[in-house]
Write a structure and sequence with these properties.
single chain; seven-stranded antiparallel sheet; alpha+beta
Length: 671
């Protein structure tokens, strides 16, 4: 992504599909947005049933005896049937179910539907991933799919279906058309600010694919969800189209393309550079006199607003100082850009025997002394000190100080710089190796001996920031890890795995299980452990909150971000308070960093609340928030008014995230 790229936001959803609706997948189920057809299973009073309007499905295998590899295959006992709906049947469906399924229209209901059960003792029980037939003599059951009205939905809302047709377990948003498209209208200044990339960034498509952040539209064009920075260096998130030459400032490049790196040839000598830096620090250097390296630094620092507050209307930005540079290096995004400068200049380890280039600095001492004397004389004038002996004394002290500095500089050159000048010696030795006989070279080739790459004879080389380079190529493939260093004891293969398996939806550890006698639902997943198991950060993040939680335990809330730009909030709950050490709100945490240890729930009298088979249960209670309600705590995570979970609206079941982390940490799928 180059500077100036525009991020596209999803269009507003057209409405919501209700829980219980059947979903029929029509295409790629791995895309962020997927296309589905709605399947409805309804009941109609048996008084309206007319057997004359039934007919069998066209299935030539029904009722036949065929020969298989293991002998005769007998005919199927029950035959699927179609049923013809009347206009009154359709009106009944609309009147009865419209409040639950407002997207359904009378014209969309087909004339011919599938008969699931006639409710008369001759029930046709078909294998179904949708609703089971109502076993009631007073009703018959039908099912149909709306063929000409597909919907687009977010794939992470139907992860429980695993790409297979089935039912929605909760209400979800839908779109009538693919949610992403280029907006032809001119954006407002505010919209442009929120959607314009101000700092170039390279993102890995393979990582985005693993995180499910790629969407494929009707034309098979790929869109990817990315995170970038706006002009104020605040994160912005949106979508870009990666089809070649479709979107400005978006380019597909090889993984070996060094996006964001800039090459600079610095031609200033040591003396010139020292002189310019000195003048720049006291704002005595015009921007036009900057060296190439200084100009690049200036552009980065002004671009990242390090000292933009000094700007005045109609005036160029001010010159930067070393304090501005230090501040820039403290900001990760600015430091990254500085680290991406590849500068070619003459090595400090190269010089002639007379140290000619270092001697250029000698001349700067006299100019520096003259400037200091001018400043002191101005100060003496301001203080009203006019007596010659007092002024001469001050000037003599300046002379003495500079003589001391010059003396130290001469020692520096003789005792430290001259012994360190190895470049010329090595370059000459390499030149001798290069001039070896052809037979020797051939012998080296036969033995696969490595060839030396010669140093330049003029002492110039490309200087690369090693940390920035390592960081660029050190792309972690593990986006999410498991929040525990060890498997929980309610794992499928552990002590309590049979009755309290954290991956199953049939026990008290599951998301949505009843709490407080059914007054609220469980807002997370519980991972049981041995006493005081270490809890780790699932990925990089920032601590938002540390406070007390249920039954004398504590919680740590972290805003997480993955390598691919995905952001969300995790609440690590029911942890041991005493184990939270050297961690405070605002701290950055790295993936795998130890946050705390698992805790035990306690009664008012400090006796253990949870004891299973004589064992005191320690646990991690993990809650997952998508960030749709904000990636901060302006809207608190706990909200007793928001039933049934008493949590913020962007609360999600953390099961898929935990499974992903489990696979990455333990190399296998949980069961």
């Amino acid at each position: 992504m180059e500077k100036g790229a525009r991020l596209t936001q999803a269009s507003p959803s057209a409405g919501r599909l209700s829980a219980g609706m059947g979903i029929h997948f029509t295409g790629d189920t791995e895309s962020y947005y997927i296309k589905v057809k709605a399947s409805y299973t309804f009941t109609i009073p048996s008084i309206s049933f007319d057997a004359l309007r039934t007919r069998p499905l066209l299935n030539t295998d029904v009722g036949k005896v065929s020969t298989g590899v293991n002998g005769k295959i007998h005919p199927k006992d029950k035959q699927p049937q179609w049923y013809s709906l009347t206009s009154k049947d359709k009106e009944y469906l609309i009147n009865t179910y419209l409040s639950r399924y407002p997207e359904l229209t009378l014209s969309a209901i087909p004339d011919i539907v599938e008969l699931i059960s006639n409710g008369k003792g001759q029930e046709i029980t078909l294998p179904s991933v949708y609703s089971k037939p109502v076993k009631d003599d007073n009703f018959f059951t039908i099912r149909f799919i709306i063929e000409n009205k597909p919907y687009w939905i977010e794939s992470d809302k139907v992860l429980h279906l695993k790409g297979q047709d089935g039912q929605l377990t909760s209400s979800i948003s839908y779109w009538n058309n693919f949610p992403l498209s280029f907006d032809s209208r001119s954006p407002s200044i505010q919209e442009k600010t929120r959607t314009t990339v101000c700092y170039p960034r390279a993102v890995s498509l393979s990582l985005l694919a693993r995180e499910g952040l790629i969407a494929i539209d009707e034309e098979k064009a790929k869109w990817v969800q990315v995170t970038a920075l706006d002009e104020q260096t605040f994160p912005i998130q949106g979508w870009v189209n990666i089809k070649q030459n479709v979107q400005a400032h978006i380019k597909l490049v090889s993984p070996w393309h060094w996006t964001g790196f800039e090459t600079i040839e610095e031609k200033a000598t040591v003396g010139e550079l020292s002189d310019k830096l000195g003048k720049n620090n006291v704002a005595k250097l015009d921007l036009a006199d900057y060296t190439p390296a200084m100009r690049a630094l200036h552009q980065i620092l002004t671009g990242t607003l390090i000292y933009s507050t000094q700007r005045k209307k109609d005036l160029p930005p001010p010159t930067f100082t070393d304090s501005n540079l230090k501040e820039g290096l403290r900001r990760s995004w600015t430091a990254e850009q500085i680290g991406h400068l590849l500068v070619r200049y003459e090595s400090e380890w190269y010089a002639d025997a007379a140290l000619s280039k270092w001697n250029e600095i000698d001349e700067l001492f006299e100019e520096e002394k003259r400037q200091q004397k001018a400043l002191i004389e101005e100060g003496l004038d301001n203080l009203g000190i006019t007596r010659p002996y007092q002024r001469d004394f001050a000037m003599e002290k300046v002379d003495e100080a500079h003589e001391h500095v010059k003396s130290n500089w001469q020692r520096e050159k003789e005792e430290r710089i001259k012994p360190s000048l190895w470049w010329q010696q090595v370059a000459q030795a390499q030149a001798q190796v290069q001039n070896q006989t052809t037979s020797t070279e051939q012998s080296d080739a036969d033995t696969n001996s490595p060839k030396l790459t010669n140093l330049s004879t003029d002492g110039k080389a490309w200087f690369i920031h090693p940390i920035a380079m390592i960081d660029y190529f050190n792309v972690r493939s593990t986006e999410i890890i498991f929040p525990l260093k060890v498997k929980p004891i309610n794992n499928f293969d552990m002590q309590f795995g049979k009755k309290f398996n954290w991956t199953k939806n049939d026990n008290q550890t599951m998301f949505g299980s009843n709490r407080s006698g059914g007054k609220r639902k469980h807002a997370g997943r519980d991972l049981y452990t041995e006493p005081n198991a270490e809890i780790v950060a699932v990925c990089d993040g920032v601590v938002l909150d540390i406070r007390d939680f249920y039954c004398k335990t504590h919680q740590i809330t972290v805003k997480h971000h993955t390598n691919s730009g995905r952001e969300f909030i995790i609440r690590y709950g029911e942890v041991d308070k005493s184990s939270i050490k050297n961690l405070k709100v605002g701290d950055s945490v790295k993936q795998g960093a130890i946050l705390a240890k698992t805790g035990k729930l306690l009664n008012n009298d400090d006796t253990p609340l949870m004891v299973l088979s004589g064992k005191i249960i320690y646990m991690l209670h993990l809650e997952y928030y998508s960030g749709e309600s904000g990636l901060d705590l302006k809207k608190p995570l706990s909200n007793k008014a928001n039933k049934p979970y008493e949590r913020r609206k962007d609360l999600l079941d953390p099961l898929e995230l935990l499974k992903q982390g489990y696979r990455n940490s333990f190399g296998a799928d949980p069961q």
